[in-house]
Amino acid sequence: MEVQELAPGLWRWTAFHPEWQEEVGCVSYEAPDAVVLIDPLVPGPEAERFWRALDRDVKSAGAPVHVLLTVFWHARSAREVAERYDARVWAPTRGRAAIERRVGRVTDTYRLGDELPGSTVPLKTARASEVVFWIPAHRALVAGDVILGGPRLCPESWLPEKRSLDDLADSLRPLLELPVERILVSHGEPTLAGGREALARMLG
């Protein structure tokens, strides 16, 4: 497990994913009104250390815990987090059933562009079941599978039928209107500065 404090209240940690056989990224964001965990995965061998640290942070924050998932494939440890902290679990309206099957319960649903806890905003991708999250306070994008480290677009084989990489790029182009500084990905290394310029290069 590797833990990075990217800014006060914004953390990224990695944990080994047994199915992917690689380290994947997760995000914790402490807002004034919420503790937001995005795509959380508890690191198996270091679970005790992880829970100790998160228990401390949640207690210190004194705010409710919310779990946000970029895509249903990233349910990961959402069930354990929800049970431990009585956390609210958020899902896009169209993806609720798939997330509920993996997490056990969904407490809240949202639509693209809605303001979620911590003023986090879900934004469109070419995969109907996947969003990227925008955290305005930290000028950070949090991506699941559609943007990989680099940043670069995911392989075309990850997209739905009849969707191309051009379609994916078109769906992500509105992100260039945001003052993006950081791109926090699940797969690969994050971009910690110059995010908008990196996005522009990726999207051509």
Would you write up a description of this structure?
It is a single chain. With 204 residues, this protein is of the alpha/beta class. The chain has a single domain (2-203), classed as 4-Layer Sandwich (Metallo-beta-lactamase, Chain A). It is 24% helix and 29% strand. It is built from five helices and 13 strands. The protein has helices spanning 47-61, 78-85, 96-103, 165-172, 195-203; strands spanning 2-7, 10-17, 22-31, 34-38, 65-68, 88-92, 108-110, 121-124, 131-135, 140-142, 147-148, 152-153, 182-184. A seven-stranded mixed beta sheet has the order 1-2-3-4-5-6-7, with helices on one face. A four-stranded mixed beta sheet has the order 8-9-10-13, with no helix packed on it. The longest helix has 15 residues, at 47-61. The model has no long low-confidence stretch (mean pLDDT 95).
Write a brief caption for the model:
This protein has 204 residues and is α/β, with parallel strands linked by helices. The protein has helices at residues 47-61, 78-85, 96-103, 165-172, 195-203; strands at residues 2-7, 10-17, 22-31, 34-38, 65-68, 88-92, 108-110, 121-124, 131-135, 140-142, 147-148, 152-153, 182-184. A seven-stranded mixed beta sheet has the order 1-2-3-4-5-6-7, covered by helices on one side. Strands 8-9-10-13 form a four-stranded mixed beta sheet, with no helix packed on it. The chain has a two-stranded antiparallel ribbon with strand order 11-12.
How large, in whole angstroms, is the Cα Rg?
Answer: 16 Å
> The CATH topology, please?
Metallo-beta-lactamase, Chain A
CATH class: Alpha Beta
As laid out across the biggest beta sheet, the strand order is 1-2-3-4-5-6-7
> Would you identify the CATH architecture?
4-Layer Sandwich
Total number of distinct structural domains: 1
